[in-house]
Automatic annotation (TrEMBL):
This is Glutamine-dependent NAD(+) synthetase. Pathway: Cofactor biosynthesis; NAD(+) biosynthesis; NAD(+) from deamido-NAD(+) (L-Gln route): step 1/1. It is an enzyme of class 6 (ligase). GO terms for biological process: 'de novo' NAD+ biosynthetic process from L-tryptophan. It comes from Casuarius casuarius. Homohexamer.
Length: 694
């Protein structure tokens, strides 16, 4: 009959410019797909070089090495008798394109350039690539000699075309094209394309996965068809975690779902599907058929190959499944943990060091490392040989097998409580108890000697001794004395990260973890070059509200009872003197705003693109039950004043896991000035005028 087609998609943990590793993972995915009977295999976007090459795309070396890998793929017996769809950059007539290269049995069938480029948020594709603007147009592409020698072809089709096999028709989309309002699958489906493919480089954002799933399912619900999506997974060299979720959908229903978070470098989904289901689904949609009768046809590349076999009546096909989404707390538990594991093994360091203060942020960071240890032990238990090999390299023991997360945590995770005369015994006890429960190697130290030495140098040079405000000092003195403590903690964190393992007779150094949340960064409520300055920060893109919910999740799922007292304690920096042994300083009082308010400001500023006046106009409606217009005006002005005064701190922000679309990361995501006119005179006058009117 030739109606049951078997196709494969995958999620690969590719690494930018790791051509050896990327080639191995691509080949392994094709081998797995073939072993499961697939006749077509789809891979992630730009999988040959890795998606995150950034300005390395400008280099001719990146193009050269991509073609060298392609030649290896074409030559490999693994790629025979299966249509392989791989991603790489290609230069055509001196213009660089983001392409799919589709080949079969040492012959390139089509090079399909990306039509709609991603250029918002973390994406900068227009910086490196040009979109293909010639709809349904194909040109000759002259292959480099390294490929000609393998394929025997001089030219191949390059452009916007579809593949016509002996039994069906396939059309490609690339990542952003699914999200575009005029997605190619619409016109392709009307022109008889039955299988749509999408190779993605889509990164994790909290609460985003369902959007991607809904887009894929809706693509085939209206028009019928089979939709296959591949995605990258893991940390490929920067702040993003690509979250897999490879999937296959038929006529609006998901039939195969890949994992969103895992330590498996290669994950392959294979499904057998009935083409007659697509044809019968489409046949009864009269509006679709009327539109199809008028569509402009796509160029078809004929392929003498079938995705089905002739005798397939008894072949079972896949049935719809219910997609399981992670809760936000599960996403925080798993996403940053997988990102940390990739960063640790690929940086070839021996573990992490975290200044553990006994507060929510550093405790949440510690819990994420503990979650990572859980994931490692689980992967080893499930037979993941690569994770086992990486764990052995990290602990420098060729016979080691990580079985207990607490034991593994003690080997690779050092926590450090840095007390001062302003620290309470409560936070010291909380940090110590949490460290015991997760198993980290815990250090307790006091920084007062170093603080007095630094302040003593200043006093010796100037003849003046600064005082805290509770002792009659000015706000300048008070802030300077707090900053000295905070910055000394950073220096000590790096010193202990470099030498702690040396003192324990173990090789290697530790990566320093930061623990400033996204709301504190937005407000600038941190000391520049303090413990927020670290190598990486797993919670820098996560709000305080979400972190509190995550802490509750850890209490329930990891039985970390020490977190209960941390949850109930008021957030504090503990940089000012205690009063009668009790805290006199809290974060929200210091900031002049609550963390809940900060999240609202952050979303309006970044996601809603609101300046001071627009934010005020939105909040007088949102907060009408709790604030007068004058109070809203005061709050908005205070936020923008503090935000603009402290924006310079974002230029040195520790690289953080990207999890929120209101992240203030100045490096790539949130591009703003860092020297503002902090009076906002014109904007604030507009607010005042509106307040008076109201």
């Amino acid at each position: 009959m030739g109606r049951a087609v078997t196709v494969a998609t995958c999620a690969l943990n590719q690494w930018a410019l790791d051509f050896d590793g990327n080639l191995e993972r691509v080949l392994r995915s094709i081998e797995i797909a073939k072993s499961k009977g697939a006749r077509y295999r789809l891979g992630p976007e730009l999988e040959i070089c890795g998606y995150g090459c950034s300005d390395h795309y400008y280099e001719s070396d990146t193009l050269l090495h991509s073609f060298q890998v392609l030649a290896k793929l074409l030559e490999s017996p693994v790629t025979q008798d299966i249509i392989c769809d791989v991603g790489m950059p290609v230069m055509h007539r001196n213009v660089r394109y983001n392409c799919r290269v589709i080949f079969l049995n040492k012959n390139i069938l089509l090079i399909r350039p990306k039509i709609t480029l991603a250029n918002a948020g973390n994406y900068r594709e227009l910086r490196w690539f040009t979109p293909w603007n010639k709809a349904r147009h194909v040109e000759e592409y002259f292959l480099p000699r390294i490929i000609q020698e393998v394929t025997g072809q001089e030219t191949v089709p390059f452009g916007d075309a579809v593949l016509a096999t002996k039994d069906t028709c396939l059309g490609a989309e690339i990542c952003e094209e699914l999200w575009a309002p005029n997605s190619p699958h619409i016109e392709m489906g009307l022109d008889g394309v039955e299988i749509f493919t999408n190779s993605s480089g889509s990164h994790h954002v909290l609460r985003k996965a369902h959007t991607r799933v809904d887009l894929v399912n809706s693509a085939t619900a209206k028009n019928g068809g089979i939709y296959i999506l591949a995605n990258q997974k893991g940390c490929d060299g920067d702040r993003l975690y690509y979250d897999g979720c490879a999937m296959i959908s038929v006529n609006g229903d998901t039939v195969a779902q890949g994992s969103q978070f895992s330590l498996d470098d290669v994950e392959v989904l294979v499904a057998t599907l009935d083409l007659e289901d697509v044809r019968s689904y489409r046949a009864e949609i009269s509006s679709r058929n009327l539109a199809a009768s008028k569509v402009c046809p796509y160029p078809r590349v004929k392929v003498n190959f079938a995705l089905s076999c002739s005798d397939d009546v008894a072949v079972p096909t896949c049935m719809p499944i219910r997609w399981r989404h992670h809760s936000p707390e599960e996403e925080i538990c798993l996403g940053p943990a997988c990102w940390l594991w990739d960063y640790l093994r690929r940086s070839k360091q021996a573990g992490f060091l975290l200044p553990l203060s006994g507060g929510i942020d550093s405790s949440a960071t510690a819990c994420i490392v503990y979650s990572m240890c859980h994931q490692v032990c689980l992967a080893v238990k499930n037979g993941n040989a690569e994770v086992l090999a990486d764990a052995r390299k990290i602990v420098n023991d060729e016979t080691y097998v990580p079985e207990d997360p607490r034991e593994f945590c003690r080997r690779i995770f050092t926590t450090c409580y840095m007390a001062s005369e302003n620290s309470s015994q409560d936070t010291c006890n909380r940090a110590k108890l949490l460290a015991e429960q997760i198993g980290s190697y815990h250090i307790n130290l006091n920084i007062d000697v170093a603080v007095k030495a630094i302040v003593g140098i200043f006093s010796m040079v100037t003849g003046r001794s600064p005082r805290f405000s509770v002792y009659g000092g000015s706000s300048r003195e008070n802030l300077a004395l707090q900053n000295v403590q905070a910055r000394i903690r950073m220096i000590l964190a790096y010193l202990f990260a470099q030498l702690t393992l040396w003192t324990r007779g173990m090789p290697g150094g530790l990566l320093v973890l930061g623990s400033a949340n996204v709301d504190e960064s937005l407000r600038g409520y941190l000391t520049k070059y303090d413990c927020s300055s670290a190598d990486i920060n797993p919670i820098g893109g996560i709000s305080k509200t979400d972190l509190k919910n995550f802490i509750q999740y850890c209490i329930e799922n990891f039985q970390l009872t020490s977190l209960r007292s941390i949850m109930s304690a008021p957030p504090t920096a503990e940089l000012e003197p205690l009063v009668d042994g009790q805290l006199s300083q809290t974060d929200e009082a210091d900031m002049g705003m609550t963390y809940a308010e900060l999240s609202v400001y952050g979303k309006l500023r970044k996601i809603a693109k609101a300046g001071p006046y627009s934010m005020f106009c939105k909040l007088i409606s949102i907060w009408k039950e709790i604030c007068t217009p004058r109070e809203v005006a005061s709050k908005v002005k205070h936020f923008f004043r503090m935000y603009s005064i402290n924006r310079h701190k974002m230029t040195t922000l520790t690289p953080a896991y990207h999890a929120e679309n209101y992240s203030p990361d100045d490096n790539r995501f949130d591009l703003r000035p860092f020297l503002y006119n902090t009076t906002w005179s014109w904007q604030f006058r507009c607010i005042d005028k509106q307040v008076n009117t109201l």
